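Service request form, structural biology core

Requester: graduate student, group of Dr. S.
Request type: structure prediction, single chain
Budget code: on file
Notes: please return the result as C-alpha cells.

Sequence provided:
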Amino acid sequence: MQKLPEHTKVYFEAFGYDIADNTTFIPCEISGFKAVDIHHIVNREDRIENLMAFTRKNHDAYGEIKYAMAMLLKIHRRYLQMNGVSFDPEWFEKYINKYEPYEYKKTTK
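Core staff response, request fulfilled:
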C-alpha cells in the first residue's frame, strides 16, 4: 500500500474516504472533476479547515495566489458544511478576514 502524506490522511479521514482504496473518487471542491491533489490553502498546517481537494488545473490556477485565498476558504467551508464535516468556524473567520483585503486589491487594479 502506498504511504500517503499526513495532510492527505487528514483529508481522507475527515470525509470518511477509505485510505486503502486507491479507486475512490475524490471530487475537486471547485469543479467536481476528479481531484489529484490535496492542497494546503493558507499554510502548511495539516487540519481539515486548511485542506482542499483540487484538480491539477485548479491547483495550478489558485494554489499559491493570495487574492484567491479568501474565496477558496469560503468555498471549502461551504463544502465541509454540505458534507457534514466538523470544523472550527473561528479558524475560518481568522483566515478569511486576513485574506479578504487581497481579494479586493486584485479586483480594483
